[in-house]
Amino acid sequence: MSEASQTPEPVGPGDSGEATLPEALMLLLFNPRNGTIAGEGLNLMYALGGAMITELAMHGHIELDQAKRKARRVGDGPASSLLRGAWSRVPEQTTGIRSLVIDIGKRSRETTLDRLIERGDINKEARRFLGFIPTHALVAGATGTRDRLLAPVRAALVDGVEPDSRTAALIALLSASNNLPAMHADIPWSGEIHTRGKKFERGDWGAKAASDLILSSLVAQLASTAFATTVSALGRPD
Hints:
- By secondary structure, this protein is of the alpha+beta class.
- The chain has one domain (18-226): Orthogonal Bundle (yeast vps74-n-term truncation variant fold).
- The chain has helices spanning 21-29, 42-58, 81-87, 97-105, 108-119, 145-158, 165-176, 191-201, 206-209, 213-225, and strands spanning 30-31, 36-37, 62-65, 70-73, 95-96, 122-129, 133-140.
- A hairpin with a 3-residue loop joins strand 6 and strand 7.
- The model is unreliable at 1-12 and 229-238 (pLDDT under 50).
């Protein structure tokens, strides 16, 4: 084996201890009580696509033209295998953000779920349907990651605690994708929760998180474009 082949791959978000935004979002949408993931289908597709684009922008792997709502791929790409797959879908020429969210999002469910299973945050258990048909069920892992992610989200929405930028972005994505009501068992749904979620969508993150103005602007933009898109608009050009 050559010396080069023995060099370990660089470690990045998602391959290390820190969950990426798409991993965090899917893990929060996972209901450990019944093994379901809220928003399955188009809703989850947009949410994961928006989370992928946000994470890539946070680490400078895509360059944004916010005035034209476009982005392009830059640099060498992320070390994370999950994020690199999304980054590779972004052209070097500027492309509409909404179309990127759709293209990346529709490919993100299985890859993100696979990463959570690899990390042990979610386990896949073999089951039998009707006693003889092989199937599987998703159950909570023992890492405690979901509880750690949920705590600051709940504190911001329920108690009005100012979150950091990553938590604020996560809340904005959850709210914009209309998934907060589905999290009622963890965050009791109310008009106040709705109002606070909408503030995060608009980029109103409070003094603690507002230092990242580019990130708050991007998430607000995603909320007003990608998540507002209906099924009938999927084929419409940007």
